[in-house]
Amino acid sequence: MDYKQMREQLKSRLKPSRFLHSEGVAETAAFLGERFHLDIEQCRVAGLLHDCARQYSDKQLQAEADRRGISYGEVDKAKPLLLHAYVGASLVMEDYGVTDQAICQAIFRHTVGGAGMTELDKVIYFADMIEPNRDYPQVEELRRLSRLASLDEMFFAGLVQSLNFVIKKGSLVHPDTVTAYNEILLKRAELNG
Ligand SMILES: [Fe+2]
Ligand SMILES: [Fe+2]
Q: Domain 3-191, what architecture?
């Protein structure tokens, strides 16, 4: 399936606002990919399809995850919407002909992060937070970082934003987000001796 076909199929499955968001993430991911010298096509496809399982309800997501034998933790169980990332990673292979595992992984990790995030994983995670249709108080500061900061600095700011957001809401913190956050700090400590 070429990009145009992926786009058409996605458009037919997502509600218009979600499709618009997906296109925004694809463009932002391509911009970041260029800035950080990554494979731009990979960034664009992962960005476009990252929310391809987002049309499912919580109940459907659980059923789709269970049907595929996807294992998930307590927090995902309590917040089934998070499953759209894991189900999406399978769906791109099944329905969109994606065979590139790096793309699948970036989609798998786009909502909560994970251990050993690759450059592509970080780009998709961050592009999802700052694409042009996003609107929340801190988004301009994050967009500024997307033009100026290093990839790790930028990604770290994204993690802090996500953690602050869920904590302020009194919501659950996903352990994979904490892992990604700690990894950056540990790497920094190592670099600073
Ligand atoms: Fe998502
Ligand atoms: Fe998204």
A: Orthogonal Bundle (1.10)
